[in-house]
Amino acid sequence: MRKTPRQARSREMVERIVAAGREVLVTDGYDAFSTNRVAAAAGISPGSLYQYFPDKAAILDVVIDRYTEQTADRVAAAMADRMGGAGLDVVRDIVDALVSALEADRALLHVVAEQLPLARSKARREALEQRVRELASTYLIARPEHSRRPVPAVSTWVTVLAIENLATRWVLDQPDITRDQLLDEIVAMVSGYLLS
Length: 196
Hints:
Blueprint: H1 8-28, H2 35-42, H3 46-52, H4 56-82, H5 88-103, H6 106-114, H7 118-142, H8 152-173, H9 179-194
């Protein structure tokens, strides 16, 4: 951001700009995203927008950062809540939490997953995956009976990426597969892999 908002009015203005940025991104898509469209959606002049954000990339960064943080927080909280659980119910609950987190803003997920250049979202995605892998590795180290794989860090890398991609595609593609069917199939896949 160009300047840090200190007064309540300034903070409200920034929030309006960010909310408008999200709306323009979802409605018009990444290619049509512009500061003029964001300013119009926020009901302010482009000059007012430029007081806080130097360009459209700065607005995009805040919108995507917030989305990624919210998704990561939801998934990490769900995992932390279930770390004491046992067996495949834990896997099912965690996958269900991931699907719920992704469904919370399907429209923005669509833009992030399918429209944003990889370079714009790669570091954020990797940070989210790392956070989830660390929690999963901690779980597998603490509960070795839940995996026969020799290296927890490797097996969690494979598992987390597989689950993330399946959950993302299910949310975006909306195939003729129920949520319960998806969860059952992912649990079967993970248990077959970890316990083989």
